[in-house]
Design brief:
The protein has 201 residues and is of the alpha+beta class. The chain has one domain. The chain is 23% helix and 34% strand. A hairpin with a 4-residue loop joins strand 11 and strand 12.
């Protein structure tokens, strides 16, 4: 997986056909990611993330591909008219037509059978497109530059242990900064107590 990309899990489901003979091979999913969610816990602190509802307003959604585990073969894509990606008050959604090739129809059968109940979307945050709220330990993503792909995943990532490189780097920096601030505050408090004890002698 590319180091500059981040990945978040979303729901995936195969849409049932009204008539079996007219199978449509459509899958869709929704990323309701506008509420804060915990990405990892460290030192007893929950570090969270929230994608703002306007974060996708200027995102490049022009050529999003549909593939498995973010790698390998492309089964559908927006530029071919087989992937539709949108965003609204609920989050980022996708609807994909897997009817065009034999391989895509086989993948649909796997999704329909429940072998891929979750999917993930890959994206890149715009430069200066996020901020950090120290009080709530929350990264707020304000602008997403591009969405690269939507992918059924074999094993949905546990954000606490399988963050992408760029996300891990971001939170490693935040955690290190907050640890340093806590240590400095503890040292100041110890120094105050020391001065208080000496003044009482």
């Amino acid at each position: 997986m590319k180091a500059d990309r981040e990945y978040r899990t979303m729901e995936l489901r195969a849409l049932p056909s009204e008539v079996e003979e007219e199978k449509k091979y459509i899958v869709e999913g929704y990323a309701s990611t506008f509420e804060p969610y915990v990405l990892l816990t460290m030192d007893g602190i929950d570090y969270k993330e929230q994608i703002e509802p306007t974060a996708f307003d200027d995102a490049d959604l022009s050529d999003v591909v549909f593939r498995v585990d973010h790698e390998g073969r492309v089964y559908a894509r927006t530029s071919a008219g087989t992937v539709e990606v949108w965003h609204d008050e609920h989050g980022l959604g996708q609807r994909t037509d897997l009817s065009r090739t034999a391989a895509a129809r086989e993948l649909f059968a796997d999704i329909e059978a429940g072998n891929y109940p979750k999917m993930s979307f890959a994206f890149r945050v715009a430069e200066d497109g996020d901020t950090y709220d120290k009080k709530t330990h929350t990264r707020i993503i304000k602008r997403i530059e591009k969405v690269f792909d939507v992918s059924p995943v074999s094993f949905p990532a546990n954000p606490g242990t399988e963050l992408s490189v760029s996300t891990r780097d971001y939170f490693d920096g935040v955690i290190e900064m907050e640890r340093a601030e806590r240590l400095a505050a503890e040292q100041r408090e110890r120094q105050k107590q020391k001065i208080r004890i000496l003044s009482e002698v």
